[in-house]
User: Fold this.
Amino acid sequence: METRHKILLIDDDPDLLDVYRDILGRLPSQPIIRTATSGARALAMLETEPVSLLICDLKMPKMDGLQVLSIVRRKYPELRTVVLTGVADEQFRSRVYSLGVDLFWQKPGSEEETKMLLDCLESLLGRESEPGFRGVQSKSLMDLVQLECISQSSSVLRITNGPLTGLIWINNGDLIDAETDALRGEEAFHKILAWRAGNFESLPAEPDRPRTIFKSYNAVLLESAQALDELRQIGTTSPALPGETPSAQASRLGALLQVEGIEFVLTAKTGEKDKFESRGLEDPARLAAWSRQSLENFRALGERLQAGPVEQVICLGPQRHVALAQQGDSELSVGWRHSLSAEMVRDRMKKVLALWAS
Amino acid sequence: MGLLNLFSKPEPALLGLPSGSFTLDRSGRIVIATLPSSFPNALVLEIGRQVMNTLRNAQAAQLRLAELVVYYPALKITARELSGGAIVFLSTQNLAGPVKPN
Assistant:
């Protein structure tokens, strides 16, 4: 069975492709190199042959690199992507990263730069795509807490998930306290453990931290695992009827309504017409149709402009504001008090999206 | 240095995103624009069309809207309803924040 990585190189200059092929031949993992001289050809190749890494030039005739990458990021979100270009413009660097590209690299001009590029590519090829916490890849937060407790460590774990921050105190392998938002103790711990991904760092221990969790770490972790299992089961066994709000979803929507300034919440699955759930709306059907259509239109516009995926659409009105955004496969439409400014709505929407994701 | 020469070649231009504004009348025609001429007119019209559609269709959803702000990682579109038409502001963004127009 073939286990070598495959790299697909795209550049409209066949001579350059030959040079790249030679350079990439020096990668320690000895990947298989495929080449394409146009974006269209590369997209056709991706349809038939999965690759681990795509390396793309920016300036190409007919379909430029930004167009290729926006299609690739949408169709193959797990695929690692690298831009290798002579373009030094900061706007294009930003746009490339905003598309979710892993690496923007100016074409190497020296042996040293070539070596650095190869190191980065080798690192990208070795990186796993599983979710997890940065710094300790492929480990769930539960694994991390368990490791700390088993090794009898004393530390404060700081976990950030978008705008949300959580702290977990561990002293000599005992779970002492946890805190996030206004929650403390076990409740905060369960909340933090429900986050699927984020950033994790270990801070110096605080031995004087007052204890609020008195159960063993095993017992608390077990409770968290059970709660997560129950949530997953509800999510997979209770499909929502149009406009109906099943229990797990209802509690998530209800949690969002606790954010200050929110008047209503409506959510729908991307691509599932006529299915939505809402709280705080008397007649959600029309709003659901408008929200879906508006998000779809601005998504398409973003692709045409190569401006990246639409982050938020904030609509300001004299009676209320409405913010539209996508989080994973959910589309959210949130009504806000009209006294809030556009920037305030935008900031609070980030919190809503992080809450929804967790 | 030989490597450097190998990597240089004449390349087609990339589409840059503009900063500036334009005004649309109620039929969606551009009345005035301060956008660079290098930015295709078809794209200006497309932005205007989507903005106007969103503002108009909101009424069918019983929403009264006066302003629309669309955030992309590389571009911010701000549109204000203007006597049935709209005034639209475009400003490019980068990862560090908004970019000053030239």
